[in-house]
Amino acid sequence: MIKLEPLKCPKCGSVLKSQQKDLVYRCENCGTFVYAPTMEVLNAKIYRFDTNRHDKKYYMPFFVYRVEYFIRREVSKHARDIYNQRGSWIAYIPAGGSLPAHETLRIAKLITSRPPQNVVETVDFEGIPNLPVEITVEEGERMSEFLFLSYEVDKPGILQSIAYTFTAKFIELIYLPFYYRGYYYPGLVQYGGEGV
Ligand SMILES: [Zn+2]
pTM to 2 decimals? Predict the structure, then answer.
């Protein structure tokens, strides 16, 4: 006979209540974030709103990665070829909210191009709903690579071929404040608070 054990917090042992379709559990007792596919404790942060608009508030989860790339050769029309260029940056990948692909890319670019600064951390969602995490860490890695390629496509010239290596290493989960009014925009002063 198979006995089903309730899922327990790896830190304090409390029973975890599963949220529908959220790949991350939050322990109601100790606040630990647990990644459901592996039951590992996640390093997670919540950044507080610093704007006050009348639109509906949400916390949007982001997987944060350290990206490293090496472009062996990149050929573009109307631009100089690139050889042996190495680089590194931090990618912010929206991990939930059932966003359409173009919205995921727009928000990923918005936050990755100007990472959050002067943020205030809060230990709690403070009654504001958080969007569920709907992608795995591996899916986020692939989205980081797609983001990298879209940045290369955005550069001057018309990209014709690129030979590269790419790695994305997961760092942490960050919940960023967002408003919704037909589309999502960040609730942080540095993004203007009025969408893009
Ligand atoms: Zn716990």
Answer: 0.92
What is the number of alpha carbons within 13 Å of residue 190 lying toward its C-beta?
13
Amino acid, res. 29: N
What spacing in Å lies between the alpha carbon of 159 and ligand 1's midpoint? 49
Cα separations (Å) of 188 from 2, 116, 179, 183?
49, 8, 10, 16
CA 48 to ligand 1 center in whole angstroms: 22
Ligand 1 ion: nearby residues, β-carbon < 5 Å? 9, 11-12, 14, 27, 29-30, 32
**Cα–Cα distance between 39 and 83 in angstroms, integer?**
42
DSSP state of 139: H
Q: Give residue limits of the domains in the chain.
A: 7-42, 43-191
What are the pLDDT digits (tens) for 21-49? 899 999 999 999 999 999 999 999 999 99
Of 15, 151, 188, 185, nearest to 71 (Cα)?
A: 151
